[in-house]
Amino acid sequence: MKKISNILSLIIAALTVMLGCESTTLDVVESPNALNPSQASVDFFLNQIQLMTAQIHSGEEGRAENGLSQFGMEPVRIQHGFGPTYRESYDPSDFDRVWDNVYARALIDIRTMNPLAEEAGQFTHIAIGQILEAYIMMSMVDFFGDVPYSEAAMGGEGILNPTVDSGASIYQAADQLLVDAIANLNKDETSLPSDDLFYNANEDQWKKVANTMRLKLYLQTRLASAEGFGASVSTSRINELIAGNQLILDPADDFFFQWGTNNASPDSRHPYFDANYDGAGPSSDFYTCNYYMNLMANQYGEPDPRIRYYFYRQQEDFSGADVVTKECVTEISLPAWWDPSEPYCLVPATNGLSGYWGRNHLDDDGIPPDDAFRTLHGTYPVGGPFDDNSFRNVSGSGAVNEGLVGAGISPILMSSYTYFMLAEASLTLNTTGSARDYLETGIRQSIGTVMDFGASLAEGTGFVPTSTAVDNHIAEILAAYDAGNDTDKLRIIVEQYFIALWCNGIEAYNTYRRTGQPDNLTPAFTTNDPGPFLRSMWYSQTAADSNTNITQKSAPSTPVFWDTNLDGFVD
């Protein structure tokens, strides 16, 4: 009884305390590890949005093939794609990470940041978000066609299965975003971004990015039949942009993401550096396509001045390589279906440079232990070593201190790209300016940018291209241009654009489908018909499985809205 009495006394005392606190509000502080959006920093949101843009472009550590650039380089013979048919080149699940980064990360962060920035009067933050959103969504249309947008990243409003919007409507929305971004950049803001990873809050440079993206948009849609697009609209808009003189025309305004050198927690290095030099296994199965290396090594009288900056050769003497792979060394006769003008395995040393070991388009043979022979990504743009004829085996795990130690860049919109786009527009739409002059400036600016990027590594090697060598190389290209018809001229413009686009497969993939150039690409290696070209990519497997408004394509050959070329135009 005594114990019961004591328990009752404790209960009564507790009730008395609770009743006495009836009118008191308990000040409960939310966990700092679970901040709600109103407590978040607008600068942190912007930082994450910029990083997501770089990862959507170039991939992530350990996920080197999950950036759009990799998916774009492989079909156009810059990087090697395994195939053996276009339909089998990729699985829908290969695109899950890209879709996740776009819809579950970048767009949600933009949607969450904007009202906070609007309330605080931080209009430059909003403008940068608008520019990056336009770029991301244009890229999604370019690769996948019709995709969710108007209802995307709006789960808070109960839209769990966003509808698919037409590619043309998304392009129209992207153009409006860019126009609105320029208007926001012209407003007075309460504070500029404190951690702008691209331009350190330089509003004038962001305006040039927005205008150059509009140039890209209207060049991309010059063949489109959708309302608001087409040749006449593109001609008018591009001439307006040229007259406005607010494009990325100088390397000082180049739009790229700078990666770091940290190799853990987090790994901030360029994803391709990680894959080539510090990845698991032999270079993570990276091969550069022999077509592309041959284009740079042997097309003209001397190798392209950028070749030692782009590629690192690990071997010069392959006399013993037949122990590893007989196909690449001891093949005596070419298959009947193979074009004898193209390199079968090793790029021929026509101009004196030997040792370029890659793969041919859609060759899906097994991977031999050839990691010591493969030509790797070099200094530009991934931050690897400069090719100084040292021929060292540096691929695979452990080679973490090579070159610039991974401090490469993701080249998104460089000044040279602007000039190549203007050259195409001048030739095909008769827009303002000389296509030949634009071509020359584009080549010069690309070479200059690459040489400047790798200057610290190339100095003292004896292999820095002289100004005379650069001038002679450009003169040879221009002589071929002058001697050609319009088809030849367009081919030369696009070939040189492709070379400048090393590690930017987004623009290469778009340009090939738009122009059909270069029209002399290496054929598919497979002896069977590779099937229709990848006019677009599969929808993400996760998206098709989870969103009732997305129906997976029957084949990845459906053209996107701006690609109105006939079937078989590209292969």
Summarize the structure.
The protein has 571 residues and is mainly α. Helix content is 43%, strand content 3%.
The fraction of residues assigned to DSSP E strands is under 5%
Task: Sum up the overall morphology in one term.
Answer: globular
Span of the ends, CA to CA: 93 Å
- For the largest sheet, list the strands in their spatial order: 1-2
The major beta sheet can be summarized as: 2 strands, antiparallel
DSSP, total strands: 6
Low-confidence stretches: 1-35
Structural class: mainly alpha
The number of helices is 18
Mean pLDDT: 88
| Helix and strand run | HHHHHEEHHHEHHHEEEHHHHHHH
Radius of gyration: 27 Å
Q: Roughly how much helix do the residues carry, as a percent range?
A: 40-55%
InterPro entries: SusD-like (IPR024302), SusD-like_2 (IPR041662), TPR-like_helical_dom_sf (IPR011990)
Protein name: SusD/RagB family nutrient-binding outer membrane lipoprotein
Pfam families: SusD-like, SusD-like_2
Signal peptide: 1-19
